[in-house]
Amino acid sequence: QVQLVESGGGSVQAGGSLRLSCAAPASIVSFNNMGWYRQAPGKQRELVAAITRGGNTNYADSVKGRFTISRDNAKNTLYLQMNSLKPEDTTVYYCYCNANTVWGPQRDYWGQGTQVTVSS
Length: 120
Known about the structure:
Blueprint: E1 5-7, E2 10-13, E3 18-23, E4 28-39, E5 46-51, E6 57-59, E7 67-72, E8 77-82, E9 91-101, E10 104-110, E11 114-119
Parallel strand pairs: 2-11
Antiparallel strand pairs: 1-3, 3-8, 4-5, 4-9, 5-6, 7-8, 9-10, 9-11
């Protein structure tokens, strides 16, 4: 089920930047843990960046110092700022959140995926 709407993907040159956005539906009252995942060709989906309800963040070693995860609770939106992009960052990115909704707490949501392509 596609529950979150992703945007901001595209094609950039190495060293460039992109900002991915993930918009949550109105049924989401507040966020709990959230993250961005990606799946490179021939590999399993991996967690790229995560942010807890308390604001603690964690990043995959491959993106540390280049990517920044953030959230805007007023807009019910999750972001991934990607700087100094490398060709190996090329893949489809998926957003995820566990959220409290009008239907109850601790519900899982996933985005449809957005393509990021970085050329050398």
